[in-house]
Structure formats: C-alpha cells, structure tokens
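Thread: Newbie trying to understand structure tokens

Hi all, I'm a second-year student working on a class project, and my supervisor (Dr. K.) asked me to get a predicted structure for one chain before our next meeting. I've only ever worked with sequences, so writing a 3D structure as a token string is new to me. If someone could post the tokens and maybe explain what I'm looking at, I'd be very grateful. Here's the chain:
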Amino acid sequence: MNGVRHFLDLDRIPAETLRGILSHAARMKAGRMGRPKGWMEPDRPAADRILAMIFEKPSTRTRLSFDSAMRQLGGETIVVRADELQINRGESIADTAKILSANVDAIMMRTGKAQNLADLAANASVPVINGLTDDSHPCQVMADVLTFEEKRGPIRGRKLAWVGDGNNMATSLIHAAVLFGFRLDLACPAELQPDAKVLKWAAERQGQINVSHDPAQAAADADCLITDTWVSMGMKDAERRHKILAPYQVNAALMAKAAKDAIFMHCLPAHRGEEVTSEVIDGPQSVVFDEAENRLHAQKAILAWCFGA
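---
Reply by user tm_fold:
Sure, no problem. This is what the structure looks like when written as tokens:
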C-alpha cells in the first residue's frame, strides 16, 4: 500500500536507501559498544510497536536477531508458527494480512514460496519484511555487506566469490553486487545455476557478475569467499545434491587461491566437512560469527527504516 515501507528484496529499494540503512546499522552498533547489558537505544523508533514474526521454516539467527532488534529499539514481538494460523485451514493470506495489520505494527515472514510474502505485502497496511524465501535472503546479505566493510573497508570495487548452489543467497548477492558496486564471481554446477531472470536484471544494469562452473576461477584473488549448505530445509534430493556439489567445497586449497587477506562467510547453519571444512570455518579467515551478530544490527536499521526513522 502507498506510504508503507516494505523490505522485500534488495532490487526493490534504491541503492542510496540501502547505503543509508547500513550506515545507520554501523552507527547503532558502535553506540552499543561498552554499554551495560539492557541499555536501550536513545532513539527508539519501535517504542510501543509490535512486530509479528511468522515462521513457516524454523530459525535460529532470524528469530533471535529480529526479537533482540525489536526489543533494543523499544518494541515487542509476537512469534507465530505457520501451523498456528488459520491459513492452514483455508484462510487466505490476504485476509490474514488484514487481521495482522489491525493488531501489529510490522510483520516479518520466513517462508518457502516467495508468492506468500508478496501476497502478504500486497494486502498489509503495515511494513512487511522478508526474513527468507526460497527465492531470496536480503536481510542476510545486508549483514554480509556490513561485515565485509567492518573487516575490509568499502565494498565498492572489491571482488567477492560465491561457491556452490545458485540459490536464494546467490540471488540476493547478485542484487547487492549491482546496488553496492562490487564484482561477484559465482561458481555453480550446471544443474544449480543462479536464476536467469536475476542475471538478466544484473546485466541490464551493467553489473559485474561472472558465472562459471570453476570454483578456482571464481576464488582467484577474491576478497571474500562465501558458500551455503548443500541441502536446505525441505529438499528431498540430498544424495544427488551432495554428488553434484562435492567439487565446490570451500577448503584450504580454495582459500589459498583468494587474496591473502580474504575472509570467509557463511550464513549458517554450516555442515563441516560438506560445503566447508573445519579448517576454514574455524580458522583465522572466517568471520561467520561476526556475520551472524550483524544480522541483529542490520535488522535494527531495517526496522528503523520501515518505521520511518
């Protein structure tokens, strides 16, 4: 609806707005350093507001970070599993959106079908935030950009490499590469290529996106290597995917092809010995736990933006 700030996908938000959200996240994070436990933000744009969090898929980082973010901004949360809603008994998402809008001030949804999120946003009169769909994961990638810049400085002009499935994370990274001005090399099996429509969108905007089947080529001189699990929630072809993705493991040999000061990222949860070795994820180049923490700070800024701050 007009005037409502939804955070659905990075490609739907101007680059300068995304940059402003990240700058706000960095300021709020810095402001909390050295503060006692329980300290509240001096500017509390979520005061007296409630965020409903709908989970069709289980979560650790999304649930904890959004809950903490809302509380630090002065608000409250309501957690709802999809099976607790009347959607499971035939009520439409459109009707559910209207009921939610009458009771809360914003909605975060973690779902499988992207259409569910789109239908929710189309019928809600309060902000709707994409906590994850099978098509994209924008909040995670905002935290990734925040983490990269904390560790290695401005991301514009740098090279990041994605190794593995051309999945929802890959889609949001492609969006981010265009909007934040970095190069993204993706190494994906032929059967698991990134979404062709997303690649076309990036090409039309002169994005520096390169896709190959060669992990070593993608990793060469990269400032950051990123991967994800080989089998996501709900997938039933685990054995086939493991065979296809085995050559795409991020290990010490692959990290050695990146820049000397390259960092490693993973949105977690990770399966050591599959998509990444313990040597890498638990090694000195890994920033995965800083990345996980930054979900909190990035989402605080996203929430503040949704509330008009």
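A couple of things are worth pointing out once you decode it. The CA atoms of residues 178 and 202 lie 6 Å apart. DSSP finds twelve helices and nine strands in the chain. Feel free to ask follow-ups in this thread.
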